[in-house]
Specification:
Blueprint lengths: L3 H4 L2 E3 L5 E3 L1 H20 L3 E2 L6 E2 H5 L3 H4 L6 E2 L14 E2 L5 H7 L9 E10 L13 E11 L1 H22 L3 E5 L10 H8 L3 E6 L3 E8 L3 H5 L11 E8 H11 L4 H15 L1
Parallel strand pairs: 3-7
Antiparallel strand pairs: 1-2, 4-6, 5-6, 7-8, 8-12, 9-10, 10-11, 11-12
Length: 272
Amino acid sequence: MGDPAAAFDVRVSADGRATLGPVAVGLRTGLDRRFARWGVGSGAVETAYPSVLTVDELAGLDYFDNFPHLASVVTGLGPDGGPELPARYALPSAACYSAYLDLSGSALAAPVRVTTVTSCFRREERYEGLRRLYGFSMREIVCVGPRETVLDFLGEFRKRVASYLDALGLPYELAAATDPFFDPSGARSVMQKLFPVKEEFRYGGSLAIASLNFHRNFFGERCRITLPDGGPAFTGCVAFGLERWLAALGEHFGGDAERTSAALAAAEEAVG
């Protein structure tokens, strides 16, 4: 089997920072366009959000209570050359946070769907090539509305992603997973075990390349997003880690860029 990193012209540092050459950039761009097209085709509006979030915004979502180990805060330097404290900004660890924060205080007359892509950052205990990076690209498609609308949205994309993976011939399993938005030791996590709210498409049984996330009304409550009846909105999203898709494709097709491109084109023709 060839070396996927060498064939795709990818260099990854030990601390999880990736440099992509022309072949990898082309493949990643094609994947992102495909997923974005799925979102727009389902009624999502393409949206670009600020590159950073405020610390106060994330604090309002319990982020630093639940996941302080993942966070990367951003600060400037003061006149003495030392960091300005406290830090005002943080790098996003998921693309969808911005969508919910952007809707803060909204009274929805109808369900909302948006799609966005952003650079995300997660401090991890270890990094592993394109499989696990400090900085990576995430495309998300988000639905905000009544409970059944959000569940139907997730069901729609569960079928679409599965069909696409089948057409590509990538081996995968769909498995329940720990939801990244809730404290794993808290009451919401206990409830999740009774009614799973996150599913992952795992290439080869271990590498999560896409996820389906049902947040119930967590973000509706925290961001004060209401439905026509005055109750908090429900939210859900489908997320694609683009570099992880490159890792899966590279491993499956032995690092052969031409075979990879041909398989993607065939899958596109088969399922759109």
